[in-house]
Amino acid sequence: MSPLSTLLAVFVEPAKAMQAVRERSMAWFPLLLLVGGTAIVWVWYYQIVDIAWLQDQMLSAGGQKLSPEQIAASKSFMTRGFLIGSTIVSVAIMLPLIMLISAVYYLLAAKVVGSDIGFGKWFAFAVWTSVPALLLVPAGIIKILTSSNGQLTQQAVNPLSLNELLFHLPVSSPWAGLANAIHIPSIWAAVVAIIGYKLWTGKSTVTSAIVVLLPLVVIYGGWAAFAFLHNAA
Predict the structure, then answer these.
(1) ∠ CA(137), CA(141), CA(146), 5° rounding?
(2) What are the φ and ψ backbone dihedral angles of 18, each rounded to 5 degrees?
(3) Cα 144 to Cα 53: distance, rounded to the nearest angstrom
(4) CA 134: distance to chain centroid?
């Protein structure tokens, strides 16, 4: 399968897609799309957003009472150029880093279950199972295009998150971050990873689900516990 055919298959025939990745990694293609697409959406967002309004939103989200001097100092570096530059750098570094960490985890988990698949293949696995996140690119673009006055919150750029779809929590809520982090593409990505892990290692669906979901349960469970304690304080 070609890289483009594999990309499309992730959404409709995930087992076929992951078998193709097992035979031919092609990790560069989805990685470039993920990094480039994410960067484009956020650069565009910071280009059109009402920057003074966004600065006020970001400062109020912290929940801290700041003096006029502190507010002025914070706004002095929260410029449009700084936000665009820091976004490009963070996307270019953080997305590949997350893939690398995921690859290390899958490599170690594979060793435990007796698989000898190497790191390079698991890196490709981590990248390709993240492909559903590409849906956030057109979703974000549509949201930006339909914003008329430039007063669009950062969390609203992802209209597929549980918060935007179901909960509509304000940014000041301890639960908002968690609800914004979980979105429809991330759920499908987990399903693709379970299918792929089972296919690659020959393990049962239950074992594959445990391996794939364990880090998510730890991360989101810890996040939920923090939000609960913060809300109860």
Answers:
(1) 150
(2) -70, -30
(3) 16
(4) 10
Domain ranges of the chain: 3-232
Spatial distance between the Cα atoms of 226 and 233, rounded to a whole number of angstroms? 11
What string of pLDDT tens digits covers the 233 residues of the chain?
Answer: 899 999 999 999 999 999 999 999 999 999 999 999 999 999 999 999 999 999 988 888 766 677 788 888 888 889 999 999 999 999 999 999 999 999 999 999 999 989 999 999 999 999 999 999 999 999 999 999 998 889 999 999 999 999 999 999 998 899 999 999 999 999 999 999 999 999 999 999 999 999 999 999 999 999 999 999 988 76
Tokens 């193709």 locate to 20
Q: For residue 75, give both structure tokens.
A: 């706004």
Instruction: Name residue 116's amino acid.
Output: D
